[in-house]
Design a protein that fits this description.
This protein is mainly α and about 140 residues long. The chain is built from 7 helices and no strands. α1 runs antiparallel to α2, α4 packs antiparallel against α5 and α5 runs antiparallel to α7.
Amino acid sequence: MTPQHKNKTFSSLLAFLLGGIGAHRFYLRGVNDTWGWVHAASVPAIGLVMAAAPQADIFFKLLPLFLSMLAGFLQALVLGLMSDEQWDATFNRGSTRRSETRWPLAVILVATMLVGCASLIATISRLFDLLYTGGAYG
């Protein structure tokens, strides 16, 4: 039985859209992937932070998911920029098909850079605002 062929464009799209909950990790490595479960644990971590500090700013309550999403954006770039040969050697061993990247991947990577960089800057700005001014600017 030949293993299922993994699509680089689809995995990059999953990392971009659902990287915060580890969907791309589960697609690539299955449900036994430890790092996928670390991403997925960011959702219950929100509940733990809310229970531990109900008076905290909403930013701090959602920080576990924000950090996981930022890691997902970075992983989308790493996966998308991997060469087709390296991709096949890593994720498609034993598959008879070969990967051939097309232009939709470039659109996903540009969107990832746009949203990822804006999210990183916004997260750092809000964190510093809350830590150093107590939220005086918002």
